[in-house]
Design goal:
The protein has about 170 residues and is mainly alpha-helical. The protein has helices spanning about 10-20, 40-90, 100-105, 165-170; strands at about 105, 115, 140, 150-155, 160. About 45% of the residues lie in helices and about 5% in strands. The longest helix is centred in the middle third of the chain and has 52 residues, at about 40-90.
């Protein structure tokens, strides 16, 4: 279509020409930005979390070991004090063969055991149950070498120790 054949008014043609004569902006390339994190940012966060986890795990391991040690020491204190009470009442230490029964049941003056409340058995029980060694999760009493039982007991001297390792035997 040519301009001569258009039957537009002068004002309309001027407006069309002005619109078409506007300066054209150079095309700018827009980079699509998506929300998210870069690989470097994620790696930094992972490294920081790893460092924090290693510190926390190290602290917990130390807490667990010290709680086991304090539990052993408390059990030893309790058992040793009850061995002392038994000795005062019977003028002898409990025998190794009947150690657990003599401390957890009623006894007579000779050390014979019976259920609590049995007539003639006036002493004990000294413990409600034999405590478990936290390092071995068992409560066997013996007088062998270190590591052969959970607890060590010498019925001639009344010595009582944890028997799971040389370190806890010293308690």
């Amino acid at each position: 279509m040519s301009w001569s054949r258009l039957s537009l008014g002068k004002d309309t043609v001027t407006r069309i020409m002005l619109r078409s004569c506007r300066p054209v902006r150079p095309a700018t390339r827009r980079v699509a930005t998506k929300p998210g994190f870069t690989l470097v940012e994620i790696l930094i966060v992972v490294v920081i979390l790893g460092i924090l986890a290693s510190v926390v795990v190290g602290k917990f391991i130390g807490v667990f070991a010290s709680s086991r040690d304090s539990s052993i020491q408390m059990n030893l204190f309790r058992i040793r004090s009850q061995i002392g009470v038994y000795r005062e009442q019977h003028n002898a230490y409990p025998t190794l063969a009947n150690f657990v029964n003599q401390l957890t049941m009623a006894t007579d003056i000779s050390g014979n055991t019976a259920a609590p409340g049995t007539p003639g058995f006036f002493f004990g029980p000294y413990l409600s149950r034999m405590p478990t060694n936290p390092n071995t999760s068992a409560n066997a009493v013996g007088n062998g070498a270190v590591g052969t039982s959970d607890w060590f007991y010498d019925d001639t001297t009344g010595d009582f120790h944890a028997n799971d390792s040389a370190a806890t035997f010293a308690y």
